[in-house]
Amino acid sequence: MERACGSVHDMMNSEVRQNRIGSRLKSNFSKEAKMNVLKSAIVGLALVSVNASARADVIADWNNTAMDVMKAVNIAGNPWTRSMALVNVSMSDAVNSVQNRYSRYIPELPVDPKASAEAAAAAAAREILMRQYPGQKERIEAAFAETLKSIPDSPARASGIDLGAKVADAVFMERQSDATNMPDTYRPLTTPGVWVPTTPPLFPQYATAKPWGMESASQFRPGPPPALNSALYARDYNETKEMGGVKSTKRTDAQSDAVRFWTQANLGPAWFQAARQASARHDLPLADSARVFALMSMALANCFIIDWDAKFQYNFWRPITAIRNGDQDGNDATERAASWQPLNTTPMHPEYPSQAGINAGAARTVLEAVFGTGTEDFVAIDTSDARLSRKFTSFAQMAQEHKEVRIWGGIHFRNSLEVGDAMGRQVAEHLLANYMKPVR
């Protein structure tokens, strides 16, 4: 969440994981190449196996295709959530242009009750992915052909394909003015002639982008972070300092393993894995499945917009900066640690509020609104190595772990996570109250 496409942290985590595997295998290049092919196959089989009880669901299938496409071109973070929202909103609007079960994001779209809803959904997802990632045409077309195998060749299928493409076009064009592709004009804060870190922040233009179904990026902007001389700040400072340092003696091995698992490559996809498994277990009809994925995708895409608004409004320092300057914050309860390093590599954007917190609050709220707050067993599988996984018994449990690992990893303060969680809930509640509402 906090790390976006191409972040140093993700590359380091990937290298660490590959180096550990390589050292265990002690294999030559040829064997490593074979192993990589085998690992890819295992990941695919594992992702299928956790959803083995699912009936054919075009919505879940095309979510997997979208994630595969973006993984192939190394898309993550802010742009990843935008693409997932484009795909899922288009599919939901396409399905409801046939079935009219839930209100549509673009209500003026054409309707065709005689069309195939499955064909419409697949065609909508295909159209969005082809427009964004034309270099992945072969992968996208193969997925489309696979979907069509389960839909009888008929006028309804042809009409659905035509309808889905039109819906996707409308959604895609509506989001062309969302300002996410504006030039990066971030201006580093410095004094002329004084060196500052030269790596620019990730996607600063998202701070002024247009959210999905909200008035502005600042609609749910929180108040400022705690004062540096406050007891709250000292509490959080010392917790992260003790638990999140690379040489921490208080963090357990299990907590360190959790930190290493929750890379950017897993944080977002895990919520979609959870949604798919829950949708299959509850045997959701097509329109209901489309609604769940659309609402969650919109919420997560909004999180990367409203959080960036707040982050660049307050520009609050990260733990590595704060802890190495603990003697300059005016707080007697924060002792400086001159050589302190976090377990995680620090993301290239401000600390407050937490992206992990806001995403956890948003995704959990959407899923609990549909499936309830009780027991919900599911598995989150590493998208690169299927031998690694995390098992959960509720959405709340995974949301809590997503927040805790940011402290255990040394890149966040607890208050930032709590504020972010509250923001995410606001985003989700707003969307649930105003979009994809039952029409009959």
Question: Would you write up a description of this structure?
Answer:
This protein is an all-alpha fold. It folds into 2 domains: 56-177, Vanadium-containing Chloroperoxidase, domain 1, CATH 1.20.144.10; 204-434, Vanadium-containing Chloroperoxidase, domain 2, CATH 1.10.606. Helices cover 57% and strands 2% of the residues. The chain has helices spanning 8-25, 29-49, 58-72, 77-99, 117-132, 137-148, 155-174, 231-244, 253-261, 264-281, 286-314, 319-324, 355-371, 395-408, 414-434; strands spanning 378-381, 389-392. Strands 1-2 form a two-stranded antiparallel ribbon. α5 (117-132) runs antiparallel to α6 (137-148). The longest helix has 29 residues, at 286-314. 48% of the residues are buried.
* Topology-level CATH name of the largest domain: Vanadium-containing Chloroperoxidase, domain 2
CATH architecture of the largest domain: Orthogonal Bundle
What is the CATH C-level name of the largest domain?
Mainly Alpha
Quickly give the structural class.
mainly alpha
How far the N terminus sits from the C terminus, by CA atoms, comes to 36 Å
Count of separate structural domains: 2
Summarize the structure.
This protein has helices at 8-25, 29-49, 58-72, 77-99, 117-132, 137-148, 155-174, 231-244, 253-261, 264-281, 286-314, 319-324, 355-371, 395-408, 414-434; strands at residues 378-381, 389-392.
Protein traits:
Vanadium-containing Chloroperoxidase, domain 1; Vanadium-containing Chloroperoxidase, domain 2; 2 domains; 2% strand; disordered N terminus
Task: Describe how the helices and strands are arranged.
Blueprint (H helix, E strand, L loop, with lengths): L7 H18 L3 H21 L8 H15 L4 H23 L17 H16 L4 H12 L6 H20 L56 H14 L8 H9 L2 H18 L4 H29 L4 H6 L30 H17 L6 E4 L7 E4 L2 H14 L5 H21 L6
Antiparallel strand pairs: 1-2
Helix pairs in contact: 3-4, 3-5, 3-6, 3-10, 3-11, 4-5, 4-7, 4-11, 5-6, 5-7, 9-14, 10-13, 11-13, 11-15, 13-14, 13-15
